[in-house]
Design brief:
Blueprint lengths: L6 H7 L2 E7 L5 E7 L9 E6 L3 H8 L2 E7 L5 E11 L5 H12 L18 E15 L2
Antiparallel strand pairs: 1-2, 1-4, 3-6, 4-5, 5-6
């Protein structure tokens, strides 16, 4: 994958990105995701819950698209990739980092109800495969 000029900066500054997954019938499902990732050309990760539709979609079809705005009106950036769920033993560390980035004053109160595989927390890892600029028509 060849980097597109300024896309990494645009991505890092996008606090909200859109994640597209695909249903079993191939229907697009798009939802907003909070972005703490810094580079769309490296693995990205997003916290979620196991019992969500996006996780079910990823289990059936790992193809995903991450979309965020360009600086030019009528343009946006799409990063197509492959998603997979993080190993259970890694989830507590990433989840804690993500949670405390939202509420840093709560570290003394932070606890996961379960650090084992029964927790409902999950991390979605996305491995980018291609990037493109899309112009609205």
């Amino acid at each position: 994958m060849y980097p597109i000029e300024d896309v990494a900066v645009l991505f890092k500054n996008s606090k909200c990105v859109y994640l597209t997954t695909y249903s079993e019938k191939g229907e697009k499902r798009i939802r907003a995701m909070t972005n703490y990732n810094e580079n769309p050309y490296n693995m990205m990760w997003f916290p979620s819950f196991r019992d969500t539709r996006k996780v079910k979609d990823i289990k059936n079809n790992p193809k995903v698209v991450v979309t965020f705005p360009s600086t030019k009106e009528g343009e946006f950036i799409e990063i197509e990739g492959r998603a997979e769920l993080e190993r259970d033993e890694v989830i507590p560390k990433k989840w804690k980092w993500w949670y405390l980035s939202w509420v840093p004053d709560e570290e003394h109160n932070y606890r996961l109800k379960s650090d084992g595989p029964t927790t409902n927390h999950v991390i979605i890892n996305i491995y980018p495969e291609s990037a493109r600029i899309v112009k609205q028509t």
